[in-house]
Amino acid sequence: MYPAKFDFHAPNSIEEVLSLLSEYGDDAKVLAGGHSLLPMMKMRFATPQHLIDLNRIDRLRGISQDGDTIVIGAMTTEKQIIASDVLAMHCPLLPEAAKQIADPQVRNRGTIGGDICHGDPANDQPAVTMAADATYVLQGPKGERSVHSSEFFLGSFYTAMEADEIMTSIRVPAAAGSSGSAYVKLKRKTGDWATAAAAVQLTLDGDRCSSVRIALTNVGATAIRVAAAEDALSGQVVDEALIDAAAQHAMDACDPTEDLRGDVEYKTKMAGEMTRRAIRQSLARARGQ
Ligand SMILES: Cc1cc2nc3c(=O)[nH]c(=O)nc-3n(C[C@H](O)[C@H](O)[C@H](O)COP(=O)(O)OP(=O)(O)OC[C@H]3O[C@@H](n4cnc5c(N)ncnc54)[C@H](O)[C@@H]3O)c2cc1C
Q: Of 211, 151, 221, which is closest to residue 180 (Cα–Cα)?
């Protein structure tokens, strides 16, 4: 199918993008890698009259370190995330998850900002960046503001970003001390979205879990942060009984819909199992095993 007719804009600066967004309002959409937006346009679920391409703005790309924080430009591709030495060293959760997104063609073009801004609960980066304690930096006509990942997703395809704003970067604290992380994703085949997936980032203080963040993919209207599961592990010497308790909290937090990937009961059980595996793997990594 062909998309509806649109005008194409290729600005060279963020200021130009914001001015075009102010001019065209809800009739405009920004284009990143195009791997979610263009299929939506071809199916006529999205019919923007103006497409504003972000690909010429170099400031939106790249991965750098700012003290204890890793700064990832919104237009950085999944392929660049996988190849990043900075992320491998300071936030290995992101490259591990990016390797599980779609296929090489999609990862070559698809961006982390696009994956998040699309607001699709099936996308991986929302839960992954939530577990990584990320903050999203947005820029609009009134200037810049930061929204924590746990507060960004308001519903399916619905986020806290205004129509006249863009995401410029994602800021992630560098993992410190004895920390470990894992993204465990059940999918029917390579290239598919998750049936259920769990992202875990934890830190140990001796034998005890001093901090932990747990988030789930594709088992609700948005990515789900499971505070009750985190509370079950925080401050504890984590054993199998506590891991089971955390997995139960993850299942309680799920609200999946039935589709070709499975029914509600199956997806809920799989969210629990992915949580169990991600916690075990994170613990082993934090212990250097
Ligand atoms: C076959 C296939 C399989 C896939 N499997 C997976 C998967 O397993 N896991 C997964 O996570 N994803 C998957 N995807 C989606 C893919 O990762 C997309 O690339 C991603 O969802 C969107 O990123 P993009 O850069 O392509 O954004 P685009 O498609 O260009 O844009 C998506 C939306 O975000 C908005 N947007 C983009 N960038 C910005 C920005 N900087 N500021 C404000 N708004 C912005 C656009 O206006 C649009 O509304 C798959 C896609 C395909 C085609």
A: 211
Q: Using CA atoms, how far apart are residues 84 and 62, in angstroms rounded to an integer?
A: 9
Q: Is the CB of 256 under 6 A from ligand 1?
A: no
CA of 40 to the centre of ligand 1 (A): 10
Answer whether 74's CB lies under 8 Å from 112's CB: yes
Q: How many CA atoms lie within 13 A of 254 on its CB side?
A: 30
pTM: 0.97
Per-residue pLDDT reduced to its tens digit, 4-47:
999 999 999 999 999 999 999 899 999 999 999 999 999 999 99
Residues 137, 43 within the same domain: no
Mutate to test the pocket of ligand 1, among 58, 117, 144 (most ligand atoms within 8 A of CB): 117
Residue 224 falls within a domain, yes or no?
yes
Same domain, 80 and 143: yes
